[in-house]
């Protein structure tokens, strides 16, 4: 998985490409990404004393388009149905924290990467936005967004970098831990990770 690409998951859609109809999957993501770019580009927000506020605003902006519940369920796959309602609620919270904080530093390292939109495909309640990212060194790689329509809103449930699905990547990791050590072991690892993140 090309984790160096993750900063661009949330920020490059604002940098160019063809104009899509208002309310389309691309336009929906772009609106959120514009807000993320505004936050990471704000000189006042960049100050160390504003880190907590900056992270809170990034969390709010990113959460507006990423459906963490759907992503968590897909990452758990067949293991999801065995969980109780309380377990599902906790897992979604842990998964959300893992994603948000894993990429916070990377998002803030935004460096004017550019994107070229290739196409947008909609099939019923599902959609995919295909794009190509170009770095300052002119390296290129594919970056695709998978979305679904929930209550009239397009929400992202997966991103695919160079053909590798973010959700599938986590699914493989989670399933391996559950198979070899059990679900409690996975929870322990995720809780430990959350504790590290919240530690001063």
From TrEMBL:
Transmembrane segments: none
InterPro entries attached to this UniProt entry: MlaC/ttg2D, Tgt2/MlaC_sf
Key word Signal present: yes
Gene3D superfamilies: Tgt2/MlaC
Keyword presence, Transmembrane helix: no
Signal peptide (UniProt feature, chain positions): 1-21
Keywords carried by this UniProt record: Signal
Protein name: Organic solvent tolerance ABC transporter, periplasmic substrate-binding protein
Native source organism of the sequence: Geobacter metallireducens (strain ATCC 53774 / DSM 7210 / GS-15)
